[in-house]
Design brief:
Metallo-B-lactamas; binds zinc ion; 330 residues; alpha+beta; metal-binding; seven-stranded mixed sheet; hydrolase activity
């Protein structure tokens, strides 16, 4: 290249683009804005686990958390780069054991209004399944963000499914005496429970268990009462691998892993909810099994470990969440 052509080339390369290219020859790409479908899959032994995102609620956690102060919650959120009000995932989980298709919780199905549209069914379909294929629904507890998806337009969303719930949970929310004892302005949960479960009960498809119960091969119900009277976790095991489905054992990762004693207004018995959380956190950290949580940022699957204190020793009362590493699989 001659010196003249080199200097011309350099002049061209350094010229402002607007001078060297005709206008609109390369329009800027429009921003797309939409996300990929909200499902995430991994294998647990022979079982296929699919996390399904239903929606994200934005909740004023500084006002909702108890056994703490709003300032402490605000500080913990800020430390974890979380805004307040705080975006809070609503996750459900599908377990294909090879013999059964089990759904753990069902999302809100729009019950939180237009600001939190539900995507559970769309994500279930995007994940390759249909509601008709679900033969079992395990309910951790009967709050609307866990049972909302059971009915659609007055019909069972999962027409071939039997629903399982702890006897103490059914014995509270579908109990006329408990409802009568509750102030009239606080009976919404009872009405919701009837709306979503009566059709299954009438068809003989609402079953209860009492205490630690082996429900199916590899699937065990474990009482974790406190958040609600019959709140339950579900342990799922295949080929030596274990995942514990926590339901609402905790709500705010930025606050409650560090300080598990922090409770929430949604608890029906906060001291019992804390006791269940402390016990299961300690067990999950010690045993190192997988955890799947309803309100940890999607997919809500990971492990917990004791928090390392500044002296290098593990703090026996504080924990750290280690989310699953994203993978596209095989
Ligand atoms: Zn919940």
């Amino acid at each position: 290249m001659s010196l003249r052509s080199l200097s011309l080339a350099l002049a061209f390369a350094t010229a402002p683009l607007s001078l060297s290219l005709p206008h609109a020859a390369h329009a800027a790409a429009p921003q797309v804005k939409t996300q990929a479908p909200g499902y995430y899959r991994l294998m647990l032994g022979d079982f296929e686990i699919t996390a399904l995102n239903d929606t994200v609620l934005t909740l004023p956690m500084d006002k909702l958390m108890t056994n703490t102060t709003p300032a402490k919650v605000a500080a913990a959120l800020a430390r974890n780069h979380q805004p307040s009000p705080t975006p809070t995932s609503v996750n459900a989980f599908l377990i294909n054991t090879g013999a059964q298709l089990i759904l753990v919780d069902t999302g809100l199905n729009g019950l939180a209004g237009p600001q939190a549209p539900s995507h559970l069914l769309a994500n279930l379909k995007a994940a390759g399944y249909t509601p008709e294929q679900v033969d079992t629904v395990l309910i951790t507890h009967m709050h609307s963000d866990h049972i909302g998806g059971l009915m659609t337009d007055g019909h069972p969303t999962f027409p071939n499914a039997t629903v399982y719930v702890d006897a103490a949970e059914k014995g509270h929310w579908l109990n006329p005496e408990a409802e009568a004892k509750t102030p009239a302005d606080k009976r919404g949960g009872f009405t919701t429970a009837h709306k979503l479960l009566d059709a299954y009960a009438a068809a003989g498809k609402l079953k209860t268990f009492d205490g630690v119960t082996s429900l199916f091969p590899g699937v065990t119900a474990l009482p974790a009462h406190g958040h609600t009277p019959g709140h339950s976790a579900y342990a799922v095991e295949s080929k030596g691998q274990k995942m514990l489905f926590w339901g609402d054992l905790m709500h705010v990762a930025a606050v409650q892993f560090d300080t598990p004693a922090t409770t929430i207004q949604f608890d029906s018995d906060s001291p019992a909810a804390y006791e269940a959380r402390a016990k299961i956190f300690a067990e999950a950290a010690k045993d190192g099994y997988w955890v799947a949580a309803a309100h940890i940022s999607f997919p809500g699957i990971g492990h917990i470990r004791p928090k390392d204190a500044t002296d290098g020793k593990a703090d026996p009362k504080s924990y750290v969440w280690e989310p699953v590493q994203f993978s596209l699989g095989e």
